[in-house]
Specification:
Length: 918
């Protein structure tokens, strides 16, 4: 268990508005040492059936991992002459305030930055597994310059502390190699620790020279001034039994990169697509208010410790990346870690703990690498059709408000999937605006006739969605309470505890809450009963909020390390909700539930139905506004979060006499346009509804909302295909252009300017106040023709263009391929149609269900559903397309897919007739 000192900062009312970066261990570099008499100049080792690890002693020694048969391409390699495994011992402090966390190193007691490689050999882990590769040696400290890379003999300078390490590579699947690093106990102790402030290469050489050497090392060998590092043989079972490391609590894995290599992923990142040059911590927490955008970050930091966050803080990190060189890696486990990408030529992973485990992935394209990743961590289940069929309307205020807005939307024939009523539990006013009573039962005063309203909406095929989270608040100040859930959970002893054994009261704005301990065997069952009562009323979905705030000094029923449990908690929270959904749906065929979350970690996509991006500011800014919503959408998609969306209009507003952030009408309209091309089209009134422009504020906003809800519905047929593809392959619905154009350098540089929906729709939203035009980049590809939906103009080649939207109110520019071919086969008939996507109308169609054709086929005793029937439909459809002067259609199938059966029969007839398929 990793020990962290914790300090609470939530009690401070005035704070530093410009907090400094945390003091942490910098990027550690050391030399690689080996005996050329023991290790050959070059050696190839098979790892399982499909991988090879190459050892080369040239240029100081290095490793290179390749996937057979492409042995010329390295998917992972070390830097020649540089240590690839290092270790340290340090004290760590976590500063915490209302879901925001800062990790810093206070005392660096030992740094073993140099490394020896003494042995590389295959080992048999068990009779049933392929041989693994074991690398053994020692990491040791020493003054800078005292170690010559490539030489085992260390002369003139004293060795500092050292410890043995074991690194194991083994094949996990045909495209994945696992790795594990562990350490033994170091042989030396320090007389005096030194701070991170002075730690650097000069400080490192000076301070580590003071290490007091023991007369006898851990191995039993006397250490002298002139030393040849020699180690006794260790048994392989030391690796398999995971012998604990008692003192070293930092593991560093260092490997090569390229200056031009771009790094994508790392979970839901809001400021950057390419994280090269950054230090990326893997810690679930509040994303922050402003995240560097000013002046809001200044103000947030001033009134609440580090509440502003920074460009890397996020609700949903993931220790996974894909690079522009088609390299990919992820870490297993839940320990706090940092990916240091600040050096142009290398990557360094710093793991806080005594073991490092992960996997290296092989793939030829970004989408392949996403498939490899998600086949292991898990993929989302297909979303129910109802949630992606129309708008999810977020409202507050009670039954009468819902009925009034419903009447207005009906008058405009707005497609509605659901009403999302987060204030179903009642509402309280706090210092940040309107918040909810965290007691998960309906407030029958606010929502009188609750069940009747749900039944009326259900009769119109509109669902009702609500809100809950894993925290419970005391209800002493609330009237009209049925069940006091906090007191129930406290009596059952299922709340997270503090060090004194009582419920850990977690600060949240103006009130404190207890947090459910889902490591307790009774907690999940108890909470599922709350969800059961909710859906018994007719509710069919909910926001499963929070999950990022487990205190790192909490005491859990399981006794597990709270810093590790902190990153795991959002996954446990998602799993509880998922288990309830599956249990409920198993006894109700044809019915479905949906929940959506903001907090997550690596495996969250397996459990959550859907994600949303949390609380963006109601602003145009890049780090925490409408632009950051696009970056978060695309980065999370690369990281396995295939279904994601943001609140239309953003959430966080500030309304003070001297300081205001309020949602303007223009911002609201642009966010509607943006979100019409995401997985879910959902509104939110924000934390200060009365200060914000709302979709129902006036006729203009209501009309615009209705129009874009219809546009959202118009591409439902394609959205259904993308949702299915996501559940089968892990591909996100909304995609950065890098995923389909990995060789296009300009596409690599894009952040929020434009994105793809699937592979066929290119969206370039207007994200700047007062802008009348957008710049659009058309990527280069085979047979690419992009059609501007609003004007009909075709763009045939790679180019950059300034595109003026034709109507002032519609400042989103959308390009997609021309007419779209759809096919549908039943057990009786073959159906094919071509849809004009801008108007969602059928341009041409043919079906064996047509009366004249069906009677003629029946007369000739021909089947209306087989391959021959499909060929006949293809020919008829081709003739009708030619009659309409439609020369080309888009086929929404994977370009590499080979067509078979009825699909092939239709497509063959179209191509034979001269219809171009795009």
């Amino acid at each position: 268990m990793t020990s962290f000192k914790t300090s609470k900062k939530h009690h401070k009312h005035i704070n530093n508005p410009f907090p400094s970066n945390p003091k942490t261990l910098p990027l550690i570099q050391g030399s690689l040492v080996f005996d050329p008499k023991t290790l050959p100049p070059h050696q190839v080792y098979d790892i399982g059936h499909d991988f090879q690890l190459n050892w080369s002693s040239s240029n100081g020694g290095s490793l290179s991992l390749c996937r057979k048969p492409n042995l010329s391409r390295s998917i992972w390699s070390t830097v020649p002459g540089r240590a690839f495994v290092s270790a340290a011992a340090a004290d760590t402090e976590v500063q915490e305030s209302r879901g925001s966390f800062l990790v810093k190193d206070t005392n660096i007691r030992l740094v073993c930055n140099h490394q020896t490689v003494d042995e590389i050999r295959l080992i048999q882990k068990s009779d049933l597994e392929e041989p693994a590769l074991l690398i053994k040696g020692r990491v040791f400290s020493g003054k800078r310059g005292s170690v010559d890379s490539g030489s085992l003999e260390v002369v003139e300078k004293k060795l500092g502390a050292y410890a043995k390490y074991w690194m194991v590579f083994d094949q996990k699947s045909s495209d994945q190699v696992g790795f594990q690093v562990r350490f033994g106990r170091p042989n030396s102790v320090r007389e005096k620790a030194f701070s991170a402030r002075s730690y650097g290469y000069r400080g490192f050489a000076r301070k580590l020279g003071r290490i007091r050497r023991l007369r006898v090392g851990w191995s039993g060998y006397f250490l002298r001034k002139r030393v040849v590092v020699a180690f006794p043989q260790e048994e392989e079972n030391m690796v398999m039994k995971k012998a604990p490391c008692l003192d070293l609590n930092r593991i560093f894995l260092t490997y090569s990169s390229e200056r031009s290599e771009r790094f994508y992923g790392f979970g839901e990142q809001f400021s950057h697509m390419d994280l090269k040059g950054k230090r990326v911590p893997m810690l679930v927490q509040e994303q922050g208010i402003g995240r560097g955008d000013q002046p809001i970050t200044f103000a947030a930091n001033l009134v609440s410790y580090r509440a502003g966050g920074d460009e890397i803080t996020t609700y949903a990190p993931s220790p996974f990346y894909i690079t522009s060189k088609m390299r990919s890696l992820y870490l297993e486990g839940y320990n706090y870690s940092v990916f240091d990408l600040t050096n142009d030529e290398l990557v360094q992973i710093q793991m806080y703990g005594d073991m490092l485990e992960g996997r290296i992935l092989n793939g030829n394209s970004p989408l392949e690498l996403i498939e490899r990743f998600t086949e292991t961590i898990g993929r989302p289940q297909e979303l129910p059709e109802w949630i992606i069929s129309g708008a999810v309307v977020g409202l507050q205020g009670g039954t009468d408000v819902v009925r009034d807005i419903w009447d207005q939307l009906q008058a405009m024939e707005t497609p509605i999937s659901a009403f999302w009523l987060q204030d179903w539990v009642g509402q309280r006013n706090t210092v940040i605006g309107s918040q909810l009573w965290w007691n998960w039962e309906v407030d029958s005063t606010r929502y009188s006739g609750w069940r009747q309203m749900i039944e009326e909406l259900s009769a119109q095929k509109i669902k009702v969605m609500t809100y809950c989270n894993p925290c419970l608040a005391p209800m002493d100040e609330k009237k009209n309470v049925g069940r006091h859930l906090f007191e129930e959970a406290k009596k059952l002893d299922i709340l997270v505890k503090d060090k004194n054994g009582g419920p850990y009261m977690v600060p949240n704005t103006a009130f404190d809450v207890g947090m459910l301990d889902f490591t307790h065997p009774k907690a999940a069952a108890w909470f599922k009963q709350i969800l059961q009562e909710m859906v018994d009323d007719g509710v069919r979905g909910w926001m499963a909020d929070f999950g990022e705030g487990l205190p790192v000094d909490a005491c859990l029923y399981s006794g597990e390390d709270p810093i590790t449990a902190h990153n795991r908690y959002p996954e446990i929270w998602a799993r509880v909700n998922r288990e309830f959904v599956e249990e409920w749906e198993s006894s109700r065929p044809g019915e479905s539930l949906v929940f959506f979350m903001r907090a997550g970690f690596r495996d969250s996509p397996k459990w959550a139905s859907l994600f949303w991006e949390g609380d963006q500011m109601v602003s145009w800014q890049a780090n925490d506004g409408i632009k950051s919503a696009v970056v978060g959408l695309l980065s999370s998609g690369i990281s396995g979060y295939a279904f994601n969306h943001s609140d239309i209009g953003g959430y966080c507003a500030v309304s003070l006499p001297f300081f205001k952030y309020q949602r303007s009408e223009e911002l609201l309209l642009r966010w509607m346009e943006l979100n019409a091309f995401t997985t879910v089209f959902r509104t939110h009134e924000g934390n200060k509804p009365s200060c914000n422009s709302q979709f129902y504020s006036n006729q203009k906003t209501l009309s615009h909302f209705s129009r874009f809800a219809k546009i959202y519905k118009a591409w439902k047929f394609y959205r259904l295909q993308l949702v299915k593809e996501a559940s089968e392959k892990g591909h996100p619905v909304c995609r950065h252009l890098f995923l389909h154009y990995p060789k296009d350098e300009h596409a690599h540089k894009l952040r929020y300017e434009q994105f793809l929906v699937g592979s066929e729709i290119l969206v370039a939203p207007v994200l700047d106040k007062g802008k009348e035009v957008v710049k659009v980049y058309f990527p280069q590809g085979e047979s690419h023709v992009w059609k501007h939906v609003w004007t009909g103009k075709l763009h045939h080649k790679q180019a950059k263009m300034v595109v003026p939207p034709p109507v002032r109110a519609e400042r989103v520019t959308k390009f997609l391929k021309p007419y779209v071919l759809r096919m549908h086969f039943t057990n009786k008939y073959v159906n094919a149609q071509v849809v004009h996507t801008p108007t969602a109308t059928v341009a041409a169609a043919a079906s064996t269900q047509e009366k004249a054709l069906r009677l003629a086929m029946e007369k000739e005793k021909e089947s209306t559903r087989d391959v021959a029937a499909a060929a006949k439909i293809g020919l008829i459809l081709a003739q009708r397309l030619q009659a309409r002067n439609i020369p080309a259609v888009t086929v929404f199938y994977n370009r590499d897919q080979k067509y078979h059966g009825k699909v092939k029969a239709v497509i063959d007839q179209l191509t034979n007739a001269g219809v171009e398929l795009i």
